[in-house]
Structures are given as C-alpha cells and as structure tokens.
Amino acid sequence: MTDTTSPLPPSALPDPSTEGAAAEPGTPRNIRSFVRRTGRTTVGQAKAFADVGPQFLLPYAAAPADFEAMFQRQAPTILEIGFGMGEATAHIAALMPEKNFLCCEVHTPGVGALLKRISEQGLTNIRILQHDAVEVIDNMLAPASLDGVHIFFPDPWHKKRHNKRRLIQAPLVAKLAARLKPGGYLHCATDWQPYAEQILEVLAAEPLLRNTAEASQGGYAPKPAYRPLTKFENRGIKLGHGVWDVVFTRV
C-alpha cells in the first residue's frame, strides 16, 4: 500500500527542547545543527514511530551517554549529524553491523523514515536522538568516546551573509576532535564547492586532526566505499554538480 500523509501520533511529536525561543533583538543566535523544516509523516513512518520508536528513538538527557547500555553491547560508535531521510545511514549501518551508529536529526519525517528503514531492514545497530546535535555533543558525549563522525551534506547556507550559520566552523570541529578517540575519523561531504573549501580550511586548522588525503588530491579524499550515492546526489552528478569528501583522522 502506498504511504499517505497522516497527522503525527503523540510519540512522534518533535522534542520541544529543540524549538527554542527567538533571540532577542541585537543578540547573536547560537549555531545549531539543523534548519527548521515543515513536513508531515506518512502512515508508514507514523507506524514505525509506534512500532520501533520505543526501542530506537532515545530521549535527550544532559548527562554523559553510556554507549554500552544504549546499544546493549560494546562496539565502536559513530556519530552522525543530520541524516535527512536516512537513506545513507541505513545503508552504512547494514554494511557495518559491527559498529554502533548514534544519529541526530530533528526533522520528524526524516526520523520516521529512518525508523521505517530500521524496521524493514531489521537493523539493530542504530539509535536516534531527535535533538540538536550541538547540545548532544556538549552534554552527552565524553572526551575520546567516538570512533568516527559523519556529516553528510550539511546546509551550505549559500548566501554570503548567511555563511556564519554554517555548521562546520572551528568551535564545533574542536569539540568533535576532542570527542574522537586517537585514530578516529571525521568525514564530511558536500556538493557546494565554497563550503567544501571552508570545511577543508577549518579541519586543517584543527591541531588534533590530520588530513587523510594527499596534497596532490587537493586535500579532498576519494569517496569512501561505505558512503552510498543517494538519489539526491545522483541527480546532482547528472546535472554536472561536484561532490567533495573531506576525511580527517584524530592524531
């Protein structure tokens, strides 16, 4: 049966703590890991919230996370910031069952879509936090606790006056580097070249990180085999758009 849109069940309502109050005039806004978007869940997504949400959708808590308790096992843990509709997330989690994936996304239809994929594919190594990833990093992730971080296609904020809203900036990268174990990695991907250049510059300036790419490659890494080509990315490639992967490791 084809999914149709449906009002959200109470359990699928967005976390009120992600909404926040508007900044007072003249005060700067904090950088967040998300942009508010409207949308409605489908019947299938709402069913996934009800069926598997209680197991895979975790509450935000301003306290250090216990990954062993969270995933019911000891395994390398990867943080993903902003997974969209979860296509790449589910693909990578299925490809790497030996790893845990802690995934942050505030967009309710996207969370529902990933829960639906989890249910359909029988995935057990994903947990979702429907909360601002910046607060998750600040309050839930201990130093040297992560084995990797994925940030795929963050909002590029194309207009120059909006560049300051971009997620990948020095303060956040410093926090992520501190939470990576030595040898852990930070993998960013974007299809907007000016943002790719900024990401490369910011990561290269972080003393705890080292580029995996050769200088002859311009500092950009070949696309890792685990990152799939999504429908959105394939469409962009057909239109002649480039995609840049930046992969740094923790020293």
Describe this structure in words.
The longest helix is centred in the first third of the chain and has 14 residues, at 43-56. It is globular, with a radius of gyration of 18 Å. An 8-stranded mixed β-sheet has the order 1-4-3-2-5-6-8-7, sandwiched between helices. The chain has 251 residues and is of the alpha/beta class. Helix 1 (43-56) crosses helix 4 and helix 3 runs parallel beside helix 4. It has 8 helices and 8 strands. The N and C termini lie far apart (50 Å). Helix 4 links the parallel strand 3 (100-104) and strand 4 (126-129). Helix content is 32%, strand content 18%. It has 2 domains: 64-142, Rossmann fold, CATH 3.40.50; 146-250, Vaccinia Virus protein VP39 (Rossmann fold). It has helices spanning 43-56, 67-71, 87-95, 108-121, 133-140, 170-179, 193-204, 231-238; strands at 57-58, 77-81, 100-104, 126-129, 146-152, 180-190, 209-211, 244-250.
List the helices and strands and how they pair.
Blueprint: H1 43-56, E1 57-58, H2 67-71, E2 77-81, H3 87-95, E3 100-104, H4 108-121, E4 126-129, H5 133-140, E5 146-152, H6 170-179, E6 180-190, H7 193-204, E7 209-211, H8 231-238, E8 244-250
Parallel strand pairs: 1-4, 2-3, 2-5, 3-4, 5-6
Antiparallel strand pairs: 6-8, 7-8
Helix pairs in contact: 1-4, 3-4
Q: How many strand units? A: 8
In CATH terms, what is the fold-level topology of the largest domain? Answer: Rossmann fold
CATH class of the largest domain: Alpha Beta
Report the end-to-end length measured between terminal Cα atoms: 50 Å
Give the name of the CATH superfamily of the largest domain: Vaccinia Virus protein VP39
Number of helices: 8
Low-confidence stretches: 1-29
- The CATH architecture of the largest domain comes to 3-Layer(aba) Sandwich
Strand order of the largest sheet: 1-4-3-2-5-6-8-7
Number of domains as seen in the coordinates: 2
How much helicity do the residues have? 25-40%
Shape: globular
| SSE pattern | HEHEHEHEHEHEHEHE
The profile of the biggest β sheet is: 8 strands, mixed
